[in-house]
Structure formats: structure tokens, C-alpha cells
Amino acid sequence: MRIKAVLVIVMLLLTFVSNAQEKTKIVAKHTPITYIEKYDSISIALMEEYKIPTSIILGISMWESGYGTSKLSTTKHNYFGIKKNGVYRSYESDIASFKDFCSYISNRKAYQYNYLITNNVLDYNVWLIKIQQGGYSESTNWKSKITYMIQKYKLYEYDNPRVDPQIIPD
Questions:
Q1: Of 31, 27, 32, nearest in space to 154 by CA
Q2: For the domain bounded by 31-159, which CATH number is listed?
Q3: What string of DSSP letters covers the chain?
Q4: What is the pTM of this model?
């Protein structure tokens, strides 16, 4: 009987260690660099479709989702913190979240999307100002956080698709 109890404890400990190792692997996959590598292609494609700079798409999604590690992004595929009727939206896939963000920005007059694309504005600073003025985020330092992401990882280099961006690691 005592041997069975010891075996059960050993099995539980092994399961616990195995689960902890698996969680560590999952977290290790979500770094800024791997995030950019995973979502740069869809962001570039959406820039071509919606004319929203890739740096904006990547920068906002990186900040809002914690590089894809937030509960909202892992459970609801919501990488932009978009709500509907006060409730965070849920998406079937990551790509659906990215597409909805671009649609959301392009359909809100408050973000002055028509002005930005009509004047072929690719300057991420101007986009961030217009998006923040339109009420996307209530945080007063939101723009500076996104700007930091864009500058640190040189996301602005993606705004010219002919340039092969050189990502700077942490």
C-alpha cells in the first residue's frame, strides 16, 4: 500500500514537471522576433489591401497582445483588443483578427482613414496620432508604447515592401 502511494506521488510529480516544461516551451515561442516573423506576411498583405502601414498593424498587435501571449490573444485570437458592445470580440483565427482590425480602422471616420490613404500617408507617427485622436485607446501613453515597438524593432522598414527588414533582437 505504501509503495502504491509513493508511485502515485512520483507520477503526480512527473506530470507536474512535464506540464511546467511544456508551459515554458510555449512562453519561449512568444518573443518579439518570433512574433514578427509569424505575422509579417499577413501584415504586409493587409497593408497592400487596406493601405494601412505594416508598422501600424504589427506595432499595435504586438502591444495589445503582449507579443501574442495575452489571454485575449490565446483564447479569443483577439490581437488588437477590439470590442463590440463592450465585450471583447472573439475570432476563429489569428488572421481573422488581423483582417478585422484593418476593416475596423478603415470603416471608422474618426480615424481619418480616407484622408490618410488619399494622401498616401505611410508615416506611422501620423497614423498613430489619427488613430489615438479617434479614440482607439483610452490610455494616454498608448501612442508612445506603439512608437517604441515600431522603433525598437524597426517595423517602419516593412512599410516599404521592397525593403528586406533587418530585425534587431533584444
A1: 32
A2: 1.10.530.10
A3: -HHHHHHHHHHHHHHHHHHHHHHHHHHHH--HHHHHHHHHHHHHHHHHHH---HHHHHHHHHHHHTTTTSHHHHHH--SS--EETTEE---SSHHHHHHHHHHHHHT-GGGTHHHHHHTT---HHHHHHHHHHTTS---TTHHHHHHHHHHHTTGGGGGSTTS---PPP-
A4: 0.78
CB distance 129 to 143 below 8 Å: yes
Q: Please give the chain's pLDDT, 170 residues, in tens.
A: 666 554 445 454 445 444 444 444 444 467 999 999 999 999 999 999 999 999 999 999 999 999 999 999 999 999 999 999 999 999 999 999 999 999 999 998 888 998 998 888 999 999 999 999 999 998 999 999 999 999 999 999 999 865 455 554 54
Amino acid identity of residue 166, one-letter, is: Q
Q: Where are the domains of the chain?
A: 1-26, 31-159
Q: Is 63 exposed, middle or buried (0-12, 13-18, 19+ CB in 10 A)?
A: buried
Beta carbons within 8 Å of 76's beta carbon, 6+ residues apart: 88, 89, 90, 91
Lookup: cell for 36: 514578427
For 29, the grid coordinates are 515561442
